[in-house]
Design goal:
heterodimer, A: mainly beta, B: mainly beta, seven-stranded mixed beta sheet, globular
Amino acid sequence: AQTVTQSQPEMSVQEAETVTLSCTYDTSESNYYLFWYKQPPSRQMILVIRQEAYKQQNATENRFSVNFQKAAKSFSLKISDSQLGDTAMYFCAFMNLRAGRRALTFGSGTRLQVQP
Amino acid sequence: EAQVTQNPRYLITVTGKKLTVTCSQNMNHEYMSWYRQDPGLGLRQIYYSMNVEVTDKGDVPEGYKVSRKEKRNFPLILESPSPNQTSLYFCASSLTWSGVETQYFGPGTRLLVL
């Protein structure tokens, strides 16, 4: 079974600054995907970025990028030029490709507050 | 607009009174899934469906039922709700079960069982 750990329950950053959210995972699988989802106060779950485990290159989506360290089982999210709209709960998630059900295993989340 | 819809968005009920939370997607997705979200636990999968008439248990299926009679709909049924089923529920869908396409989430249903 997989586990996903987010060790930072809450974080705060000033607008326009950069912040990094941590995520570690534990798995014996070699073929998997990792995701970061954002949950704003509206409670909608929104995909931020995803990373294929077989790819060494870190994924990037505009102001969002990841630092994927496969050997260390670490998957951190960096948000550059933070904006007020980035205030949300952020979840790291793991998907085992070998399991047919395609379930996402989520961490407990990190609440990010962007200060003006 | 491509979306996953859930109804109702908020529900207060009493122990033992059967209820159904509907989920519908308009993207012709094969794969649909239900999750529940509880504080400090993230989201956990309840049930999933790979296609019409194909459903299976996730990590926390006890107390829940599902059905998939049509491709677009995947209702979650609580036959006899109990207070420990008070939670925030999300329906999700993706194009196929065999790939790793993005899972699209509905807006969530907040359920309180008294």
